Amino acid sequence: MTFTLRIPAPALLLGLVTILLACALPQSALAQQENRLLRMAVHPHQGFTRVNLFFQSPPDYTLRVLSGRVRLEVRGADSPSFKKLRVLNDKQLAGVTTAELRGALSVSVAVRDADPGVQVVSCANPSVLSLDIGPGVKRVARVDIAPGREPILSGTERFVRDFDADPGGVPFAPTDGKILKGLLPEGEALLFQQGESLLYRDRAEEAVNVFSMFLNKAPGPKALACYRLGEALERLGRHQDALSYFRQGEGLWPRYLEQAPELLQPYSDALARTGNFAAARAMLLRLMERYLGTPYQAELLNRLADLIERNGQKEAAQAMYRSVVIYSAGSPAAGRARLKLADRELFTLSRDRYRQLLAKYQTIYQEPGDPASRDEALFKMTLLLSLYASPKEALDTVVTYDRRYPRGIFSTIVKKMREEILFPVYQETAAAGNDQGLVQLALDNREYLARCFGDPGFAPRVSQAFEKTGATAKELELFGYLGQKNWVAGSAPFLLSRIVDDAVAFGNVPLAEATARDFLARFPRDPHLGRVREQLGRLAFERGDLPGAAAQLAFLGAKGAQAQLPESEYYLGKALEAAKDYRGAVRSLARFTSAVKPGHPFLPDGYFTLATALAAGKDYQRALAACQVGESVASGEMSGQFLYKSGELQLQLGEVRLAKASWEKAAGLGGTWGRLASEALNDLNWRMKIAGQLP
User: Fold this and answer.
1) Are residues 621 and 639 in contact, defined by beta-carbon separation less than 8 angstroms?
2) What mean pLDDT value characterizes the chain?
3) Alpha helices of 38-185 — where are they, by DSSP H?
4) Distance of alpha carbon 660 from alpha carbon 680, whole angstroms
5) Contact in structure between 640 and 671 (CB atoms under 8 Å)
6) How much of the chain exceeds pLDDT 90, in percent?
7) Residue 89 burial (CB count, 10 A)
8) d(CA 633, CA 642)
9) pLDDT-based confidence at 222, cuts 50/70/90?
10) Name one Pfam family in it (predicted).
């Protein structure tokens, strides 16, 4: 899905070219439709109205904001007429009409405000396009980026615009050792040189501490210390303090600037940053005169261009950069200049032109030059693709940069870009039903899923993908990592409940119990609470702690409660039967036997325990019925057990012949219960013989 926002202006030539290209296309190609607008819905809100457009597949569209009208053009699409929407009784909209022209669908929204605010809203379903129209969403003109990339733009645009790359210039030069020896004792001269070493290694704060120790010295060493303090403070961004020390140094030893002209560079920066542009420019020109005809000439021209551009003279700055590119080709200065020229287009592009700018940055990156410029060029290549390219291509680029420069100057912002671009990649992968791709996406980007967790459906969808691909062990590992992250927000209860389920499945009882206890403490009112308690009840039952199982599962006896795991009613029933709470056991086991499907491994024992509990409550008729149903679903030794129990119950009901028949059938099956049935049958026959009741 692509997106272009165009406001009508002087770009008539581009429009003419577009028309000519459209006319040149074969009619058969134009007539071919690949998408369809299925329905539209209009929802008024405070300050704006939302128009939801439901397409058959993700639309490729262009949005134009005209006077009194918003027009959406969807390439390769058609639609019904939607006659009912042509007139609307809405505060913001006057009607919506559709028309087909040269293979494109035009959706025209008449607005009551001549200059409407328009915002495209990113939905979880990429086939749904939502437009918010009205003064409530009015904003400044926006960059023509791919839909859904607005968070990346808002998170990077100001940073990139405000980023002060090193414009180049004269390198740092230490103070002449002869001068220092003439002004300071040997130990103090060495200390001063150590301060300069710190300054050279960009440890400006430590350098300030060293140079401050020389402020109480004679005018000569004090002047040198003031110059160096000015340089160190300028690097720290303390421009006013830096300027103050530069002026002190100049007042104490003005002619030293002729011996160390490189100090004019930070001095001019301090002047410029404190608002004295004219003095800064004059000082920089003075420095340039000293280096005329040297390799530093181009570097200083870049610096001058940077200075005047910050003062608003953009055209003059661009001319200087072009001069550096032409006359210093192949030099690091030319690379910096080309980077500056390319930056001018960075946030003014339409989508059909971003590849051209990308090629410029690629050239800068591939050519030998200043490492900082190459790093910056690679970052801006990454930024361009994050704003304009397909989600998959954008993610691949961001990941490549993050691996190459994990601690670079742009690494923090690139990590944020990666978080944002993951969301549309997740949407595409989920919409395609690519469960394996979704699993790999989550595993490969576990540290960057914060934006994805903003969607409440993300965690359940990923869990479903793990289940479908049989990667439960990987889910357990991933969710264990994510479970304690603050940014998983509302999904934390779901993650912990899945960790409990997975740990139980793998027999990791300590992890399951620890996670379940953590869940109970953190989320005592969460909807997943019941499932977690059911798992705790199962674990208690399996280790023989029947009172513990009954305590965890007692909530299932409440009105309206329903077990998420059918076995939970079995565990509860068994625990209650053992505790001689026969009524509770009957209720739980009745729910269990009626809920589970035939073939469930616990079903025969569930019926037997139900019969036992009913018999203990002297409800022999229902107990016998439970035995008879249980015998029909049992096999092997268990069938003999049901027949033996049926004989006992039939005897209690006075049905002697039926009891004999049940025991005879059980005896014929053999096994333990067959032997018991034979003994019971012999005993019955003896008692009946004694009583003279033999048939």
Assistant:
1) no
2) 87
3) 150-162, 177-183
4) 9
5) yes
6) 58
7) 8
8) 10
9) very high
10) TPR_16
